[in-house]
Design brief:
globular, 5 strands, three-stranded mixed sheet, 5 helices, alpha+beta
Length: about 150
Amino acid sequence: MAPNKSLERTREGQSAKLIHRRARRSAQSLDRMETSSPTSLGSQWQKAASELGIACQSPYTLVMSNGERFEFEVLLPQFGATRGMLLGTEFNAAAAQAATLEGFGFSYLDAGSVDEPFKLSEYIECLTDWGWVAKGDPPPTWYGSRGRDAV
């Protein structure tokens, strides 16, 4: 299976180090990739959100004023852009443009394999790169002052 080309298209400053780590995962053997599914990205982020004490909605449907709908695996409303960060597994130019127009950040990530170890530090790295945007709410204690919008 070819590497996920959509990993190259990120927004809100996702680190190159993490992108490369995710790209290596997407180049795994077909046997390992069959254990991964787009919905597992939501499960992975829900687990991280629970452990980190942040909001996470999975799945999330972005509905435009014209009725057009775009599906994303995850919404992290406290990070990224004004209305939050949307995550998906396959790049969709129309969905990315709609997200931007509606005030969301977006990133496309590989869900990884279910037999990979869960590393909370990788989620913290993403969240810190995207930045805390929840106005009026202090960031979690683990966030510290490393993020671009720490209060």
